Fold:
Amino acid sequence: MPEPTQITVPPHLLPSDGRFGCGPSKVRDAQVRALVEAGTSVLGTSHRQAPVKSLVRRIRSGLTDLFDAPEGYEVVLGNGGSSAFWDVATLCLVRERAQHAAFGEFGAKFATATTRAPFLEPSQVVTAPPGSVALPELADGVDVYAWPHNETSTGAMAPVRRVPGSREQGALTLVDATSGAGALPVDLAETDVYYFAPQKVFGSDGGLWVAILSPDAVARLEEIESGDRWVPEFLSLQAALTNSRLDQTLNTPSVSTLVTFAEQVDWLNEQGGLAWSSARSATSARTLYAWAESREWATPFVTRPEDRSTVVGTVDLDESIDATQVIAALRANGILDVFPYRKLGRNQLRIGMFPAIEPTDVELLTQSIDFVVDALA
Structure:
């Protein structure tokens, strides 16, 4: 058997761009040019002055258009990434008890945050094994229902629709959309908080969170933060909302992140918006899953086709094929970051299929994998 790094994939089988990571994800050349062009007019300047505030305004306005946000919904930006937003939501949106649907690493992490909060009742958690999907269920005493739109760790995606009866109950619906926002269809009217970070579909860097809030979510945060609960200012959703209405963030943001984020939002809207981006990713997904199903040594990890993500594809390899060797050979040929989620511990490939990735490159990736597997055999 040859050393994986000694395998040379023929040039005609190689994708035009080898970045298939599930976050950070591929950054388009136009985003890099926008960053260069920003130069001294934006980089290294105050985030509370007009040039940077205009970037925040572009992002907020562009996301409102991209998601066709219902009347009264507001786009809020904050520092810290989606991991920080779990704490923000725990402090500022859960009144007494949350229910979570957890079917992977990230849904479980939010459940852990609310469960450990000493000022809340123990959370209810509906679970399903990795590679499948769990959905929340109506229950007494629950005032927040939460689940991921797309589970980045497993490549499973869940529908976004309110739990029947939850609105009459006065409960909020929170959806973690970090790896799906901007490339999965969604009706924001079915949510009260649709939150994400920009390092996936939006091809930017981490360290920033975005939440699109309904009027009911705004009323809830105002109710909680005006009460007796102690909320650190950095984690205050009210502070983030107040600053976002001024087209700024509470703390100093990464301005380069704002530049690349704004550029990607504009690009998605110019191409045709959410309908275009979701169709483009779905095309890549059809290619990937059809390829996996046609190979004796590859299997889509997510069993039910309707649960298979169209932005993060996971493919199990037969035990006779060492995925780490396949990944090493691909990396030696410029095909990057197709490794599985570390804690999942499977003999698997995980492939980003975000809109910035050309569908033809996904097809070429499958041909490159075929070549490497044959060479290793």
Q: What stands out?
A: The mean pLDDT is 97.
